[in-house]
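User: quick one, fold this
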Amino acid sequence: MNAIPRILLLTLALAGWTMAGLPKKAPITLYAGLWTNSPFTSKPPPPAPVETVNPLEDYSLAGVSPIGGAYRITLLNKKKPEERLIIDSDKPNGEFKILEVTYTAGDPLATVVSLSTGSKTGTVAFDEKYLTLVAAPTAKVNPKGPSAATIPGMQPPMQPGQQPQHQPRPRVVPPSSPTSQPQDSSNRRPVQRGGR
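Assistant:
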């Protein structure tokens, strides 16, 4: 029984050998890369581009205002948020100069400003972290001190939805001075009305 599969296999191999053509010579262009990209004749690859650090990464955009044909921008220092720089495009200050203002339609916070500082250029954009307002600290209540309700003349704080209560101001009449004399009605002239 082993003979039948062997015969079948030999028949298939013989048929494939008879149908196969003669080998053909490969074209010379197939091997052209071997002598053109030789490590001895090829140039070294160009150096990778050096990533330049944005000189304005310490600043955030706080406002952009078109004034006439020029722009006025406000920059915040991220390290010192209370420090603000105002730069006009028609009057550049000594440190920064506005090169370009790029607006995005429908999204004012996507505005990007290109600035130059010395020989370096960089971009500044809005940072939402620096645009939010910080809530004022709440006053601490002293439980031992007097409350507003116990201090005479002071009203307690209003609750939400409560109408303010107005107290009338006391009327103060100054006392008459002893140097003033009452007017004598005999010195008055009668007022004439009419023709003459």
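User: anything notable?
Assistant: The beta strands are 59-67, 70-77, 84-88, 97-102, 112-117, 120-125.
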